[in-house]
Specification:
2 domains; 53% helix; Muramoyl-pentapeptide Carboxypeptidase, domain 1; mainly alpha
Length: 171
């Protein structure tokens, strides 16, 4: 049985997304690989790190046992998170967050960005309620992907696009 190159890329991309998701949830940056569909050296190292973390034989190959364990870990992590639908109401649109701010609204922004790191290439997003340069860069990356001006500020259009993307993601 031959595997179509497009099918293989899709499987590798799915594996990379799962590794990335677990890396963000577990705080293991070594799992946060670029989602490219290409099984490169960084992906192999992430698979090795995952296998070691899960006390599996460390081969760097995503065989059936590794795939099943990876899938199960992602499913368990998702089940532990209550599904939440985010609505941005007209009164909420006064929120315009900028670098240097520190409050619960920044924490919510970071939470939503972190949830989207596997779907968008947002880098590592802290969850500390501080609008740092790292948070600003993640906002800019999201804005570019969403077709918005990449100001790095969380304004009305950014909040709405972020809520739409967050609500549409598979949880």
């Amino acid at each position: 049985m031959s595997v179509n190159v497009r099918d293989r890329q899709g499987r590798v991309e799915a594996m990379q997304k799962m590794l990335r998701e677990l890396g963000m949830r577990w705080g293991m940056t070594c799992l946060c690989v670029q989602v490219s569909g290409c099984f490169d050296a960084a992906t192999e190292e992430a698979v090795r790190a995952f296998q070691e973390h899960e006390c599996m034989p460390v081969t760097g190959i995503c065989d059936r046992e590794t795939w099943d364990c990876l899938s199960d870990c992602c499913r368990q992590e998702r089940e532990e998170c209550a599904p939440v639908t985010v609505s941005i109401l007209p009164g909420d649109c006064e929120w315009c967050l900028s670098p240097g701010e520190e409050d619960d609204a920044v924490f919510l922004l970071q939470y939503m960005l972190r949830a989207l790191v596997t779907e968008y290439d947002l880098g590592s997003v802290p969850l500390d309620g501080q609008y740092s340069e790292v948070t600003e860069e993640a906002v800019k990356r999201f804005q570019r992907t969403a077709g918005l001006p990449a100001s790095g500020r969380a304004e009305r259009e950014t909040w709405h696009a972020l809520a739409d993307a967050f609500n549409a993601m598979e949880r």
